Please model this.
Amino acid sequence: MALAIGDTAPDFEAETTEGPIKFHDWIGDSWTVLFSHPRDFTPVCTTELGTMARLKPEFDKRGVKIIGLSVDPVENHTKWAEDIKDVEGFAPNYPMIGDVDFNVSKLYGMLPASVSGDPTKRTPADNATVRNVFVIGPDKKIKLVLVYPMTTGRNFDEVLRVIDSLQMTAKHRVATPANWKQGEDVVLTGAVTDEEAKTLYPQGWKQPKPYIRIVPAPGN
Model:
């Protein structure tokens, strides 16, 4: 069954390129991005893993941990890392889960419960649904789910943009409009009364419609 925003991210134990982990313990008090791949040595995923490695300092600045997943064994991930560095200039600098028993893929609704057998005998097309991005909060709740087809590389700048929104809106009773970027104006949620808004924003706000109150982003 597919996971929804607000669900608790399933906990699991797994082998990774940086040793065994228990997922919730590994998350700790951090935000986390878990992103999955159908098979090792696939072209689109090679570019994605390298791009994520290049962007890791941006995730670090936001206190966000990164972890990848593929159904291939960990030793294959290590070999693949060499190709990724050759192609993208950056090898994965975050752990990669070896989901050889399909446990995590099943827990996260990416493969049906009936899947079994040798993962190295499966084609990328067999695992086409293992192409998700999950953003998980420090409370271990799922905050975002993105699902991509195999032929479309993921936009990790968008993942960073959403994390900026999620982290801000977790602390302040605001929401971000379409195409919002860090530093731009935001809107007050219905949870903020006009009386409260006058205290929070004594300079006032723009109100193009009765239900839209536009204010500077908190901290700006």
